Amino acid sequence: MSEQAPRLARRLAGIAPFHVMELLARARELEAAGRSIVHMEIGEPDFPTPRPMCDAGQRIIETGELFYTPALGLPQLREAIARFYLERHDVVVPSSRIIVTAGASGALLLAIAALIGPGDGVLMADPGYPCNRNFVRLMDGMADEIAVGADTAYQLTPDMVASRWRENTRAVMVASPSNPAGTLMPAAALRDIAAIARARGGSVIVDEIYQGLVYENETTTALSFADDVFVINSFSKYFNMTGWRLGWLVAPAPYVREIEKLAQNIFLAASTPAQHAALAAFAPETLEILEARRAEFRARRDFLLPALREIGFGIPVAPQGAFYIYADCSELSDDSFAFSRALLEEAGVAITPGADFGANAAGRHVRFAYTNAIPVLAEGVKRIAEFLRRR
Amino acid sequence: MSEQAPRLARRLAGIAPFHVMELLARARELEAAGRSIVHMEIGEPDFPTPRPMCDAGQRIIETGELFYTPALGLPQLREAIARFYLERHDVVVPSSRIIVTAGASGALLLAIAALIGPGDGVLMADPGYPCNRNFVRLMDGMADEIAVGADTAYQLTPDMVASRWRENTRAVMVASPSNPAGTLMPAAALRDIAAIARARGGSVIVDEIYQGLVYENETTTALSFADDVFVINSFSKYFNMTGWRLGWLVAPAPYVREIEKLAQNIFLAASTPAQHAALAAFAPETLEILEARRAEFRARRDFLLPALREIGFGIPVAPQGAFYIYADCSELSDDSFAFSRALLEEAGVAITPGADFGANAAGRHVRFAYTNAIPVLAEGVKRIAEFLRRR
Fold first, then answer.
1. Between chains, do A271 and B243 touch, taking CB under 8 Å as contact?
2. Between chains, do B113 and A9 touch, taking CB under 8 Å as contact?
3. Which residue, B266, B282, B298, sits at the end of a domain?
4. Which helix (H) or strand (E) holds A145?
5. Pair (B212, B233) in one structural domain
6. Which percentage of chain B shows pLDDT scores above 90?
7. Which of A150, B120, B146, B384 has the most beta carbons within 10 angstroms of its beta carbon?
């Protein structure tokens, strides 16, 4: 009887799996069979969690007292995040607006569940982080994707947002640094987008999960000029805590009580060991480790960017943050999925096809992650170059 | 500008906060002011996480390698859960159908998101676990609550399900042992309910999160007689891992791929430290600790049940599992919320008003949790008795 076709909620049809997961699974198969694979597909720092955070996690586990925290998070962690905004960004964010979540994923779910109902539209860039459109579809909203390219550094502009705002539009999502392009949105553009949304009674959701990983300018936060935006952040990327699953949401004050209600019901609370580990995230000795890693990411970018251009990839906009390079491969292939697959099978290099980030020119793009040491990246580039010469 | 009224998705209006949270917050205030409070409101075991699980968590943290696991969970944990079903329940559950989640909350979200679309109905008992109806409302479905009482041990019956099944009904949720009443659903009733749902093209979601905590008979699982039900389970209650946030879903085989897609997008993965800690959950030395605690819970129930009856609470059905007693307080008060509040303020005992579990006779009921040692429970009963005498 269980072999009947599943009877699914209609929303499932609109939610795509990650294509990169298929490639990753195939890469693991090849590795299990003895092949060497260079991984440039994974959006996860290769660094272990810094020791001070591990120590803090171990200390709470040593007590065995791993009980639920309040739904909005440990008060002392919410206060630590507020202090970080003050010290690092010179902006006052009351801890009462900070909601600790199970990864940035938990923060996105809370924000979108609070704002988006069936049929509501959400403006977002294509290419963009794949889960964004799927969170909107989970809530039976409509992801209204706007094609962006090199001319706007793969970011939405205020003009795009104003002209695409529709009757059903309820929110606009932006990301800075962005995934897959690693580009920043200028503060002025973000301020204008917030004003446009505000004037129309809508909301802005700003993904700042790669905020700590910027290589030229100092990072800014949307919170420095607006207190009515939803800001998503994470302990995964800059803080190297991916598997702990911890992030946070800064919500406008009038929304906090309603979001608490949702958090109580959907999550009960975020992970207790993770929250205690994160209490050590802002300690000077942790930040010293993280800043050294930021310098290493920058060096990797500075190595990989010219190397990829050299072998034929088009990268018209230099990424300024995150750990990705979004590259036009149309000089090399007109089918980025087939190209990624062939690269894996024939050259042992795993990258992510453009299709994971949207539909806009997806067949002509691929994403490289520099979440590996430079010698590994160099080996990857060498293999790709040889692969291209053989064709 | 942020002080404008929030513009919320309509679903938020239907999602209630936990009333007990207000009482808990007030209890903490009273404690901070020096009052002694007996907590009988919290649905969380008072035991620390067993040492072997803490050790396993500490070992993985020691490596610093806290990376994402696959979206469905660590393969070796999924296999360990499958082995547990075989060894403890004598039922074959392929590990491919086991999805590791962030608490039972994550499992409920996945199951309901996969099954329930806007306007779809879900049958459930009132009183019942408060989040169930809120998960359904989160997905813009309709919680179709059926009043149950002592005559059916606070459980749905096949007749109720058959007669309340409507055009829009897509699923029925049951729990055994139940919350708040701690009662079991007879296997035959569950089998019949599964058949009724199956014949109508609907699904059954079975909450088995208190499965390990049963005090008379051996526990059974719905998986022993149906492979097309969704089973929710948790490491929180029997395994004492609340704050780690880890649970699991057993899905019918044809749904697994679609649920994986959802899990990839909504969660990425469950907590890595928690999954490694849970690998030690089924070790003989852990189970020995847990079985001793089960005996302790049983002793507490056996103390508290007659003690509460003695002082005037109506408990027509003895709870057989979980760590709750659902009591009729109508001989003492016709407003269980005011009664709970007065009990806290005047006697220093925190309990949960019926309103948290639904609307059916909620004003005449309260829930006691025996998540405290017998001397503490005895002190609570003494205070309640004195409070009643004073009135």
1. yes
2. yes
3. B282
4. strand A142-147
5. yes
6. 91
7. B384
Q: Is A201 close to B227, i.e. CB distance below 8 A? A: no
Q: Are B247 and B99 found together in one domain?
A: yes
Domain count for chain B: 2
Per-residue confidence band for A42, with pLDDT thresholds at 50, 70 and 90: confident
Q: What is the value of ipTM here, to two decimals? A: 0.95
Q: Is the pLDDT of residue A344 over 80?
A: yes
Closest approach of chain B CAs to the CA of A332, in angstroms?
Answer: 30
C-alpha–C-alpha distance, residues B283 and B302, integer Å: 28
Q: What is the gyration radius of the CA atoms in chain A, in angstroms?
A: 21
Cα separation, A189 vs A61, in Å, equals 45
Flag if A245 and B61 touch (Cβ within 8 Å).
Answer: no
CATH number, residue A273: 3.40.640.10
| B-chain residue closest to A260, CA distance | B17
Residue B390 lies in a domain: no
Does any CB of chain B come closer than 8 Å to the CB of residue A128?
no
Q: How confident is the model at residue A75 (pLDDT cuts 50, 70, 90)?
A: very high
A311: closest CA of chain B, how far (Å): 32
Q: Which domain holds residue B34?
A: 10-48+286-384
The predicted-structure confidence for B299-321, as pLDDT tens digits, reads as follows: 999 999 999 999 999 999 999 99
CA distance to partner chain B, nearest, from residue A159 (Å): 22
CB contact residues (below 8 A), chain A span 161-180, against chain B? 170
pTM: 0.96
d(CA A29, CA A345): 11
Min Cα separation A333/chain B (Å): 28
Whether the Cβ atoms of residue B184 and residue B214 lie closer than 8 Å to each other: yes
Average per-residue pLDDT for chain A: 95
The residue from A252, A283, A314 where one domain ends is A283
> Tokens for A271?
């992970």
